[in-house]
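Lecture 7 notes: from sequence to structure.

We start with a single chain of 281 residues. Read the sequence below before looking at the structure.
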Amino acid sequence: MVMGNGFHSCNYFGMSTSQLTQIRKRITAFCGGAIIGTLGGLIGLGGAEFRLPLLIGFFRFAALEAVILNKAMSLVVVASALPFRAQTVPLVEVAAHWPVVVNLLGGSLLGAWFGAGWATRLRSENLYRVIAILLVAIAAVLLLGHNATVGVPPIGGIALAVVGIAAGFAIGVVASLLGVAGGELLIPTLVLLFGLDIKLAGSLSLAVSLPTMLVGFTRYSRDQSFTVLDRNRDFLLVMAAGSIFGTFVGGSLLGLVPSAVLLPGLAVILLISAVKVWQHR
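Now the structure, written as tokens:
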């Protein structure tokens, strides 16, 4: 048995402290991705609002690098959540509402491009502040917007199309700034503006989010911070695996957990996350 320095640098399994740290990091990445993926699959979100504070506060990524990693993970969650939710919300039903998806995409794709450009020009400290404020705003939307009842849209025709494009643009900007899928804003918009059922709105939000995030992701690829994906490939793959597992669990639970109980709890988590991001240096 090696004593002295060897005793402090290795454990009983012969692994160094750095190796143990890497294992813990990967376990945390998988479990964090699984938990957040479950929330995403259950509600119809990319889960990025909860992943972002984890990336910044626990894994210590810089603000813009965290946003880019967040965007990559959100893409994984959204792409896998939509088919996993199909057992409760059939894809045929989602496809039947294509005019709503196209309406919102008309604004969100443009908003995603501009939002990503603004994010790359903000100083890290300012970006932390913007992220924290947006998290608080999203928490308020979750508390207020999801209480709406299904019914006839408040407006129709050209007015509805114009408002839909404007709402899509705003959501696209927020989605790019945070690296999120935008479902936390899309779902209330689909319920309040288009009068849709919340479960259907969750799946439609995923259909809108996927191309919106791809546009933002393409814009971020022009920034040098985009190399964070290559430098953290193993971390990314482990969290992606956890996320896919989580979306499967969340999609399977869809319909079992009442939104009236779940959503206020998520809003509280967002508020706590906002405080942690605001305090980050």
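Residues 17-43 form the longest helix (27 residues). Keep this in mind for problem set 3.
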